[in-house]
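Quick look at the format.
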Amino acid sequence: MLATAAILSAIATAQAAAPVIPPGSHADPVLQRDSLLYVSMVGATQIKDCRETATVIATRFDHFGATDVVPDAADPGPQVGKRPWRETWTGSACGQKFDVAFAFIPDATGTKIVAKAASQLGIPAPTTPTSPPAAKPRPAATLSDTCMVAFPTDRNASCPAALLTARRASPTPPGAQDLAFATFLGAAVTTTGDHAFLTEPETTPAIADIKLTALVRAGLQADADAFAAKQHLEMRLFQLRHLHVGAITSSDPVNVMDPGSLYAAYLGTGDTAFAVRLVQPLTAMSPEKAGDIMRTALVASSFANSATIQPQLRTMILALCNRYSCKSDPKAANALMQDVDGFANAMKASKINPAAKNAITQTINSRPELEARLQAELSIFQNYTINRIVYDALSKDTTPEQKPLIEGFSKAFAAYEAFEPPLAVSRMMIETIKATGKPVSIPR
């Protein structure tokens, strides 16, 4: 649930993170990432004189077998475990749309990807409206996500249904955040015992998908089967199970519980075990790597919407990626960003509930060197934030006398954003900040 466009764009530049694409594809995150290159290549042939990077605006599983794309990619039938399948992805660039026909062909070594422009197969290009459709306004009198944040303590039974009503009225398109939202709904109904609103007929496709996923997350398999049949979502239910999106209480080790979903599960149940899982990966890595992840998460979650820091944040993400082999290892990239997202969500959980804060703190404190690194990173981040405020103020009207101070700030920022050791960064920041007369915090 870390809404950080800078993180996603920076990692995409490094060809490292699991992409966020609209739901509909059966491809796993690694296949999705690899497939984006084909979308860009097809887009370059379909749209002339366009230098924009194509984005994926829709995906669709078509059927098993893909002989129109690859003649020998016939479907061997359900009795065979590895079946080739066909999908259609819609790309967009420079105001124009185009379809890409994909054949995914699994074998013993992996999955082969073959892509062709749908126009090559005689399929008409998708229509591009002259102007985007007007978004439905969100009603003012709906419950905000405040009730979601308060749910671990107040267990407001009306919150889940009210949030779903608000989501239905929102112009926000379907996206990866809906998995976390559905996880919250599934967790919340296991707490309240009221899931009737999830089984009611639904006319909005995106909300029907959320309802189905919530029923799966709640472990209500019979209700999920019935709802899928009623809404003609049998293929989507198959996809959820194929991708191992299971009940939040499932002990299945491959059950998809990304950081956003773990945070949502904590909100829906109040069970601090979900919050603890957000930081557990840090306890198994070196303090240096854990510190770099903490630093990135602190900056990303605090400055994600700051236009003045976006370039530095992108540089910081790429530096982190380069340090830990993102470009050469997509799985490592995905795991790295999951750890960043996990720590950011853990900090949010800590602010919400003292019980979550205590559980997270105990987990980190189980390794004294990790506890020390966290305290150092929090201290340096405080100084970094003060530096930023002072720097922004001085930059608006810099005098010759202030130029050395501005240069000092810039050097301190660069050291921090390049993941220099805490003590070295702290010394630079302290020397710089002394000139402002502001208080500083020195890590031990």
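Next, a different chain entirely:
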Amino acid sequence: MVTFTAGLGGAGDVRDTDKLVTALQDFNQTSVDTVTLSIGGTAITSTAAELNILDGVGATAGEINNAADVSARVQALTASGAVTAGIQLLELNHVSVIIAATIADPLLHQGILIVKDISATGTTAHTCTITGGTWDGTNTIITLNALNECIMVYIDSAGDGTIIENVGGVALS
């Protein structure tokens, strides 16, 4: 067994390339069996399978948690306002007040985006305006004026949408 030391000229000093090569050749284990493992004093509590899942992932813990939390991708508006970045389901809900929602940057909503009118009654014409992109290659405003009207759109990497489904006659302008 070779032990590496921090001092100059010590046994296995990393500046001694012959000893380093020998040490690497001697270290041919394919597994390490241990009850506890730590790096820099921090205990590693994940299983090998859990670590392998993360191999190559460049996301932060917060990004992983947001991706796993479906509720973080749903927003219900009861008054006019901005749509939160990352929302994939926008629900417009007010029976007597027009809601004017605005998506400032469609690039923050890439993938499937659904906008739905969940107002219990009434035919108030809610709108959602997308800036910096389009709903369908041309139009930037959708209007929903009946319960359960909705539109499902795929937003691409340029911020432009392709309509997948238009339920109930959502108007585009």
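The CA atoms of residues 139 and 173 lie 5 Å apart.

See the schema section for token definitions.
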